[in-house]
Amino acid sequence: MADTPLPHKALDINLKAFLKVHKDLPFRLLGRQVLPAHIRAADTTVVVRELQADRFFVHEPPDGPAEALMVEFFLDPPKLPQLVDCLIKPLQAMRDLQIPVIAALIYLRKGAYATFPDGLTVAGFAGLRNHYRVERVLLWEHEAEIRTGGLQALSPLLLLWEDNPEETGLALVREGIRTIEEAGFTAAERRESLALLYVIGLRTFAASALRAIFGDKMIDVKQTETIKEWLDEARDEARAEALEEGLEQGREQGLVLGRLEGRVEGRVEGRVEGRLGKARDLLVQQGTLRFGTPRKRTLTALERIRDEARLDDLAVRVLEVETWDELLALR
Q: With 0-12 CB in 10 A as exposed, 13-18 as middle and 19+ as buried, what is 205?
């Protein structure tokens, strides 16, 4: 089964949302039992990559000093610039927050790698050295707890460890759904756990196959912020590209006509056609992900739509219906 490309930054976005409702998990992976009520995401001024605010967790127990945990997740071992960032950021955060900040690198899968760095040694002249170290978690070493113990909230990540996910992955998806349903999560924890499992499943399986397994639980997935962020990002990019292409088409047509009137009309027509084309392409992409490849008559019906607002409305309604026919019937 062909690998299905994920929307931009999908796994990062879902991990961000997942950690908002499972704030104690990073602490528990490091052997610390803390109450979620005593944890908050810190708003730091450290200049780091996306999602940094949701990877700094401040533990503020009522009977002890505050401390913070900086978490970085990796699918693959980081390259040197990334590793240096992970060593610098907790020091910057400690300067800004004025409390101890511990950094932890959490590796999500083993893959074909043999080493997973937890620090860096810098060697200088005359044998001088600096050693920098952080905490490290190899998630697969916690498999028993994830499957049946106190770390079951991380069960969606089990799918990342499969060598042949095409053969066994769908069974793991079903198992993951069952685990989430039986774990006694709050409604928010349940939604974000299901969304994370769905997104990881999209790395291997078609959306239609996953929808069939999730069934009515897709309602929970669609209620998460992740889907909205995907749609907003895709729509903004498509509209920006449509505007740029439309202006270029307008200029080209105007030059062919050779008159000011022709140039103006060409720009307007090119803009409109460009925007319509991009809006239509975005709708086809979203619909294909949800309903499967459209038939010829469906594409013909979409080509007849000359109203950009109507195409935008259909793009939003993709999340509300189950088939291409039902979508087009809502026009």
A: buried
Q: Which domain holds residue 272?
A: 226-329
Does residue 223 contact residue 187 with C-beta atoms inside 8 Å? no
- Quick one: how far is CA 94 from the chain centroid? 28
At 234, the pLDDT band (50, 70, 90 cuts) reads low
Distance, CA of 331 to CA of 325 (rounded, Å): 11
Domain boundary, last residue among 185, 201, 222: 222
Distances (CA, A) of 206 to 6, 72, 196, 212, 269: 11, 29, 15, 10, 37
Contact 315, 309 (CB under 8 A): no
Q: Diameter of the chain by CA atoms?
A: 79
Distance, CA of 70 to CA of 137 (rounded, Å): 13
Q: Are 170 and 214 in contact (CB under 8 A)?
A: no
**Is the Cα dihedral 171, 165, 137, 92 positive or negative?**
negative
Q: pLDDT by residue (tens digit) across 89-143?
A: 888 888 888 899 999 999 999 988 999 999 999 998 888 999 999 999 999 999 9
Q: 266 and 157 in one domain?
A: no
CA proximity to 13, closest of 230, 324, 304: 230
Q: How many domains does the chain have?
A: 2
Judge if pTM exceeds 0.70.
Answer: no
